Amino acid sequence: MNSIETQALSIGYGESLIIDDLNVTIPKGQISVFIGGNGCGKSTLLRSVARLLKPTSGTVIIEGKQITSIQTKELAKKMAVLPQSPIAPEGLTVYQLVKQGRYPHQSIFKQWSADDENKVNHALEATRLTEYKDKAVDQLSGGQRQRAWIAMTLAQDTDIILLDEPTTYLDMTHQIEILDLLFELNEKENRTIVMVLHDLNLACRYAHHIISIKNGKVFAEGKPEDVINAEMVRAVFNMECQVATDPLFGTPMCIPNGKGRCILKQNKYNNAVNA
């Protein structure tokens, strides 16, 4: 069974159509990544799947049900969403932030319980933030702060987690840290994870399923080795490249042709040959 499907989905802002008649399938229990050039509709699609943006036509299906038929609180028990660059109120501690993930499970008849506390503690442990739980979120490093937000989504205890560019503004070390964490959550807890990523090589390393978007439509969809090739990169990103095999992971690795040093190296080679 698939976790998420879109059926003839169209999304726009005003008279501008961003996503046009899109059919996408998100496999259950896997990591799926949306890739594509700037402005192609990746984040728009993710927001619509999260029911943060109403489509102009078509529908989103969550575990066999139309998303519009699911009450907001029930949807929050099925799916957690982490938008781009979220901001916590000044002075809010890590524990207080993570605790907010349990709000969909509270009601007049069900107040804070030992189970809620256990879920929060588990989220802190999984993100390696237990020792920082009393520290203000705005005092954390970029990587720690992103882990705190992910901990909040974990405390929500949903089978599906949506993340819009979770590695944006992070250095290389923190990018790998966050993606390793998400990979562990998928491996150990079978969470369905859907992300927007810009880095093709990281997308290939961590995704089971890649969806390439061009001009609001699916250009290619499937396993990284079936999607990532020089023709796709040329068509979707307007860039020439070589696609090799990652020596550590065996996944596709995109090497941009670029200019500059590449041209300089070629000129040196030509001069040596002609000398």
TrEMBL record:
Subcellular location(s) per record: Cell membrane
Organism of derivation: Halalkalibacter suaedae
MF terms in GO: ATP binding; ATP hydrolysis activity
UniProt topology in membrane: Peripheral membrane protein
PANTHER family in alphabetical order: IRON(3+)-HYDROXAMATE IMPORT ATP-BINDING PROTEIN FHUC (PTHR42771:SF2)
Keyword tags: ATP-binding, Cell membrane, Ion transport, Iron, Iron transport, Membrane, Nucleotide-binding, Transport
Superkingdom, natural source: Bacteria
Residue ranges constituting the ABC transporter domain according to the UniProt record: 4-240
Gene Ontology cellular-component annotations: plasma membrane
Keyword flag ATP-binding: yes
Protein name: ABC transporter ATP-binding protein
Pfam family, one: ABC_tran
Biological process terms in GO annotation: iron ion transport
Principal localisation: membrane
